[in-house]
């Protein structure tokens, strides 16, 4: 019987927001300033299939590229996909949720109908189909992922907006003659902001996992080096067969740790947010 023992720092991530922020900060720094910590340029080649040594801590891949260098530069692409997908998803979900909850009536019925239809669509097969027919690129991937990850945000924002729309400060703004757009911008969005950050963080984590899945299926940009593509390249070019753990295991660990940190930050923020009562 084998017992899996997790490192103590990994256990602490379950309840320590400080540790999660530090870990996420390290990856963000690597994404913004890769040259300051990368041992080599990503264009330099060495002997292929090299094992880890003092010159190449994580060895080299089938093309002779330093795996640690690829890992550092891949951080940028993975985070860019996650963050921009989160922004697009947040914009769509917030816009639909606010308009639906504020106007109600037939507008609410129409938008929630679209949301319900989108919720029941099997996302991964549809995303795979779209990605297969379009030219693979980072921005196509972001748009496709963003268009299929806004539904839960829209529902949460709609519920919150319906709680706020008849509150005293919103009715006061209406009596003063402010337009619906002005009320949404100045009265509603500042109040619902606390529920947006957790949704944003969870969407980032989900997008990073989805990108890795598409990369593994060969539907990512071949010129784009991400953690998911590193794992896919290792699988396609003999990394698994040759048991080259230094090629596929580090990007998998980085992705798991980053997703866990992002998810926990969002969940901790959401759990610590006080419940507001509107009258």
Automatic annotation (TrEMBL):
Domain ABC transmembrane type-1: 75-266
One Pfam family this sequence matches: BPD_transp_1
GO cellular component terms, A-Z: plasma membrane
Main location class: membrane
UniProt keyword annotations, A-Z: Cell membrane, Membrane, Transmembrane, Transmembrane helix, Transport
Any one GO biological process: transmembrane transport
Top-level taxon of origin: Archaea
Family recorded in the similarity comment: Belongs to the binding-protein-dependent transport system permease family.
Regions crossing the membrane: 15-33, 79-104, 124-148, 169-193, 245-269
Subcellular location(s) of the protein: Cell membrane
InterPro entries the UniProt entry points to: BP-dependent_transpt_permease, MetI-like, MetI-like_sf
Protein name, entry field: Binding-protein-dependent transport systems inner membrane component
Membrane topology qualifier: Multi-pass membrane protein
């Amino acid at each position: 019987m084998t017992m899996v023992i997790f490192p103590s720092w990994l256990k602490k991530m379950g309840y320590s927001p400080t540790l999660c922020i530090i870990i996420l900060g390290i990856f963000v720094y690597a994404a913004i300033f890769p040259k300051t910590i990368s041992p080599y340029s990503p264009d330099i080649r060495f002997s292929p299939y090299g094992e880890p040594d003092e010159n190449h801590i994580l060895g080299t891949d089938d093309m002779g590229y330093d795996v640690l260098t690829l890992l550092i530069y891949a951080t940028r692409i993975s985070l860019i996909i996650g963050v921009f997908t989160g922004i697009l998803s947040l914009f769509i979900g917030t816009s639909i949720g606010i308009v639906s909850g504020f106007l109600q009536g037939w507008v609410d019925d129409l938008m929630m109908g679209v949301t319900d239809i989108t919720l029941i669509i099997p996302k991964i097969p549809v995303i795979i189909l779209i990605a297969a027919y379009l030219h693979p690129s980072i921005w196509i991937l972001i748009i496709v992922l963003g268009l299929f990850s806004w539904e839960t945000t829209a529902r949460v924002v709609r519920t919150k907006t319906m709680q706020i729309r008849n509150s005293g400060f919103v009715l006061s703004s209406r009596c003063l003659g402010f337009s619906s757009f002005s009320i949404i911008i100045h009265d509603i969005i500042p109040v619902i902001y606390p529920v947006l950050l957790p949704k944003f963080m969870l969407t980032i984590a989900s997008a990073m996992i989805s990108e890795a899945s598409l990369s593994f299926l060969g539907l990512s940009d071949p010129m784009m080096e991400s953690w998911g593509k590193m794992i896919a390249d290792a699988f396609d070019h003999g990394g698994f067969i040759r048991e080259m753990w230094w090629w596929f295991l580090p990007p998998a660990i980085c992705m798991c740790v980053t997703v866990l940190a992002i998810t926990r930050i969002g969940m901790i923020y959401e759990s610590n947010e006080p419940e507001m009562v509107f009258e």
